[in-house]
Amino acid sequence: MGTRAWESTEVDAVGPGAYRATIGPEWVLAMVPQGGLLAAIGARAMAAELETDLPLRAIHGVFASPVPHGPVDIAVRVLRRGRSVSQASVDVTSPGAASGYSAVAVFGGDREGFAFTELTMPDVPDPEDQPSFRDPPPPESGWEPHPPWPFWDTVLDGRPAIGHPPWDDSPRGAAEVANWFAFDDPPVLGDGTLDPLALLIMADVMPGSVFEKLGPREQGWFAPSIDLSVHLFGHASPGWILAHSKAHHAGDGYASAEMALWDPRADGGPKLVAWAAQQMFFTKIT
Questions:
Q1: DSSP 70-86
Q2: What is the pLDDT of residue 1?
Q3: 228 and 204 in contact (C-beta within 8 Å)?
Q4: For position 39, what pLDDT does the model report?
Q5: Which residues contact 221 (CB under 8 A, 6 or more apart)?
Q6: Most buried in the list 43, 61, 69, 166, measured by CB within 10 Å?
């Protein structure tokens, strides 16, 4: 944002390695704030403690306990502070809670090396030609509109690109979906690029690939994240980002998936700006 919603990623130092932030209610997704936001808050605090402007290259976090919206405490430990690469760990918890979100991250500057991208962006329809996640189901579907989920209704808009709507009972194929995502008010840096931490938000939306494989279901399921790993590959431009997700395995009440984020407006053609992986578990929404 750069506005009210994105202010939830801002952190205030309150002591050595100690920070605080406040998560607004607009980030609530079904039951608790969206997990990618916790990763963004943790990354912001780690960069502040490291006193570095090196880009975030990788972050891996686990979700040990729910973190409700409202004030949060953040504890950062510097693992190594280097000139070209630095590492830190972070815990983001509700005040007084013993656990919440914990992560390690690597910040690193540009280095000599090689350049190639093996993945390719799928050929998909433009987002302007697709319905929004915010649109109600068609009357003939028999599905009721979802209850208000502030995250989808006020923070991030989504448009389908690959996959079926949940009420479509046609035969399913691969556990694969692609969606266009765009912030209502994108957080833009001084150079006009999207704040890289915004990609952490878009990366934590992988359960759709599992549900694409399953097809319509009588009762809704919620898929909280166990972990989330994100690798960042440079800045993206504000606007629609394509999130291409595949699930590779489901069993024992868990599923594993990956996500590739593409900027279609990059010079020279679509650019892979992030890749993520996570495991999730399943619980019924009652």
A1: EEEEEEEEEEE--SSEE
A2: 42
A3: yes
A4: 98
A5: 211, 282, 283, 284, 285
A6: 61
Q: Which two tokens stand for residue 106?
A: 């690597």
| CB 176 within 8 Å of CB 212 | yes
> How far apart are alpha carbons 127 and 137 in whole angstroms?
18
DSSP state of 154: I
Q: What confidence score (pLDDT) does residue 2 get?
A: 45
Residues 13, 203: Cα–Cα separation, whole Å: 27
User: What is the predicted pLDDT for the residue at 217?
Assistant: 64
The structure tokens listed for 94 are 């509700």
Residues 6+ apart with CB under 8 A from 248: 175, 256, 257, 258
Residues 274/90/256/148 CA torsion (nearest 10 deg): -80
Q: Phi and psi for 209 in degrees, rounded to 5?
A: -65, -35
Question: CA Rg, the chain, in Å?
Answer: 19
| End-to-end Cα separation, the chain, in angstroms | 32
State the pLDDT at residue 237. 95
As a whole number of angstroms, the distance between CA 200 and CA 232 comes to 9
List of the chain residues with pLDDT < 50:
1-2, 218
Q: Are 259 and 225 in contact (CB under 8 A)?
A: no
Q: How far apart are CA 36 and CA 64, in angstroms?
A: 14
Contacts of 114 (CB under 8 A, 6+ apart): none
pLDDT digits (tens, 9 = 90+) for 87-133: 999 999 999 999 999 999 999 999 999 999 999 999 999 999 999 99
CA 23, 27, 275, 240 dihedral sign is: negative
Maximum distance among all alpha carbons in the chain?
A: 60
pLDDT of residue 16: 96
Q: Are 99 and 92 in contact (CB under 8 A)?
A: no
